[in-house]
Amino acid sequence: MVADKQTSAAVLAAFLGGMGVLHFVKPEPFDAIVPSRLPGSARLWTHLSGIAELGCAAAVAVPRTRATGGLLTAVLFAAVFPANVKMAYDYRDRPAPQRLVALARLPLQVPLVLWALRVRRRAHQ
């Protein structure tokens, strides 16, 4: 069971770290889904969310901060949901495969939030 806890946390940390790095290496796709109602530039929000993902990755990777990291990751996954809604709306006139990807992102947030909460819960066991 310890290996399962460690593996799940490590995979979540790697996922968050990879996505966080992408926010800086290839920011354009992230810029495009930042809701326009947010103050400041889309790039600012892309970089802030990348920093948040990298911070969550670090917190989840370290056993001592894993519970807090899991909670913060769940909050982050919920917080980016409006960007996924914007993407689904913006893609409504795109070809079917692109629309499907955009729509699939919406329910994907639920298992991501649950995964982060499971990592948090297992950190206490």
Structural write-up:
Keywords: Membrane, Transmembrane, Transmembrane helix. The structure is a single chain. The chain is mostly helical. It has one domain (about 1-125). Helix content is about 80%, strand content about 0%. It is built from 6 helices and no strands. α1 (about 1-25) runs antiparallel to α3 (about 40-60). The protein is globular.
Number of helices: 6
In the predicted model, the low-confidence regions spanning at least 5 consecutive residues are: none
| Helical content (DSSP H or I, runs of 4+) | over 70%
Overall structural class, as computed from helix and strand content, comes to mainly alpha
Oligomer: single chain
* Major sheet attributes: none
Count of individual beta strands = 0
Note the run of SSEs as H and E. HHHHHH
Q: Please report which band the strand proportion falls in: under 5%, 5-15%, 15-25%, 25-35%, 35-45% or over 45%.
A: under 5%
What integer is the average pLDDT?
93
Radius of gyration: 15 Å
Distance between the termini: 10 Å
Shape: globular
Number of domains: 1
What would the keywords be for this entry?
125 residues, mainly alpha, 6 helices, globular
